[in-house]
Write a structure and sequence with these properties.
Radius of gyration: 13 Å
Low-confidence stretches: none
Strand content: under 5%
Helix content: 55-70%
Distance between the termini: 22 Å
Structural class: mainly alpha
Shape: globular
Largest sheet: none
Number of strands: 0
Length: 60
């Protein structure tokens, strides 16, 4: 497992997607970006362990 997303990746992900902008303002876009990237990395590192917890991890 990694130490978490790089600051560069967080800064890039903090630039919200158009559909996220339509949903309304983010209180803390960098914190939101960090959480999204950490969750994504967790699914990548342990797909079997996170399969039941995430609708974005495809089944077998």
């Amino acid at each position: 497992m990694t130490d978490g997303p790089s600051e560069k990746n967080v800064e890039q992900r903090a630039n919200r997607l158009p559909e996220e902008q339509v949903a309304g303002p983010a209180d803390d876009p960098e914190a939101q970006a960090r959480a999204i990237l950490e969750e994504s990395q967790e699914r990548t590192d342990d797909p079997e362990g996170t399969r039941d917890d995430s609708p974005q991890t495809p089944g077998p």
